[in-house]
Amino acid sequence: MKVKIKNTFIGDNHPCYVIGDLGINHNGSIENAKELIDMSQECGIDAVKLQTFNAAEIVNKRYSPADYDILKKYQMPYEWHEILFNYANKKNITIFSTPANRKDILFLKRFDMPAIKIGSDDLINLPMIEIAAKQNKPVILSTGAAYLDEVKNAVLILEQNGCREIILLHCVSCYPASYADAHLNKMITLMKTFEYPVGYSDHTTDITASIGAVALGAKIIEKHITLDKKMEGPDHFLSSDYHELKKLVNEIKNVEKCLGVFQKEPVELEISKR
Fold first, then answer.
1. Of 83, 159, 183, 197, whose CB count within 10 A is highest?
2. In a 10 Å sphere around its CB, with 0-12 CB exposed, 13-18 middle and 19+ buried, how is residue 273 labelled?
3. CB of 248 within 8 A of CB of 16?
4. What is the model's pTM?
């Protein structure tokens, strides 16, 4: 099955779709956010993604004070959204966001996003997934820390509410995730279980796992991006800077060339060797 985001198809016989996740790596600066969009456009990735949330609504300050303080410090102001959506559109790069709750889905509706991303933390938030399904947009669903039955329940809710353009992302909800924790074979389980395109949301510290995922058949790669891996903040060191993001795009193209055909027979250059 294929899914169309804006003018680009995602699925079999189509190039891998690459998303750069700004996350909180703007560090509270809208100019940093614009530079990350510029970087993404220059590196040739397909889309950039924001994270729409209010820290007070998603973190219990009493039980997780450290998480609350970080997210409060780096949350993206709601008034930035219109500026950044317009900026990305002028740069001719696709932009959408991950809402944190039902209210955020309705807030983002005004920007006519070409897709909605549901993070792993909301995979079992079925009322929110139901609202996302009713927006008549493709839904990208991350599956970090989930059991397969939970993924099935989320997909069923999407389908029952009219959404048939679904992309599933294998994800390990650790920051960072080690190679040993990546478990890319779980993508194969998703591919065998569902008819929808499958990809990988990469939280490792480099691009090795993403390249491996493409070799296994990932149709979409999501990677956090940064202006500098040494910047202050919890996610920069596991994110891709300009040079790494550029390399990711090139290596994905090289891997896709390497995959070739399924039929076992000599290639043209082998005929003389026979």
1. 197
2. exposed
3. no
4. 0.97
Average of per-residue pLDDT across 180-187 = 98
In the numeric block, the tokens 């202006």 are attached to 227
What DSSP string runs through 31-53?
HHHHHHHHHHHHHT-SEEEEEE-
* DSSP state, residue 225: B
> What HEC string does 49-90 produce?
EEEECCHHHHCCCCCCHHHHHHHHHHCCCCCHHHHHHHHHHH
Distance CA 100, CA 55 (A): 9
pLDDT digit string, tens, across residues 220-233: 999 999 999 999 99
Predicted confidence (pLDDT) per residue in 36-54, tens digit: 999 999 999 999 999 999 9
Residue 240: what pLDDT?
Answer: 98
- Calculate the CA 164 to chain-centre distance: 18
Query: Burial level of 136, CB count in 10 A (0-12/13-18/19+)?
Result: exposed
Q: Which residue do the tokens 């001719």 mark?
A: 92
Q: Which residues are paired to 167 by β-bridges?
A: 140
Please state, in angstroms and rounded to a whole number, the distance separating the CA atoms of residues 245 and 226: 9
Q: What is the largest CA-CA distance in the chain?
A: 72
Model pLDDT for residues 136-156, shown as the tens digit of each residue: 999 999 999 999 999 999 999
- Quote the pLDDT of residue 174: 96
Q: Are 170 and 192 in contact (CB under 8 A)?
A: no
